Structures are given as C-alpha cells and as structure tokens.
Amino acid sequence: MTARLYRFDECARFRGxxxxxxxxxxxxxxxxxxxxxxxxxxxxxxxxxxxARKKAAQGxxxxxxxxxxxxxxxxxxxxxxxx
Length: 83
Known about the structure:
The protein is mostly helical and 83 residues long. The protein has three helices and no strands.
C-alpha cells in the first residue's frame, strides 16, 4: 500500500523529523568523483593494448604472450576498480 503525504505533520512519524536525520554519512565520503575517469582510462588502455597485439599479429609476430599477460593484468585491475 502506498500513500502520499502532502505535509510532514500529517503523520506522527514525521513530526519529529529533523533535517539530515535520515542521512547517515555524506555521499562525498564514499563516492570518488575521479572513479568514472579512471575506469574509462583503464578501458582505453586495454583497448590500445589489444590493438597493439592485433597489429603485432598481423605483422608476423609469433610471441604474443606478453600482450596476453598485459591484457589479463589490465582486466584484473579494471575489475578491482569496479568492485
């Protein structure tokens, strides 16, 4: 059941409400504003490494293990950022 309160004094529960009482901590404490940029940078780095691997493979390189290790490491770092 849902109901709309037009004024706080309509409900006894909200009569004692003080401003900020429902907020436990400010959002700035747990939200990092630079996080979206870091995620995009890490994804771009993965993409550039993938393109470098593809270019090396087209050029005839046979040892692509370094690229694969680097891509795996970058993906792990990206997963850590998103957790």
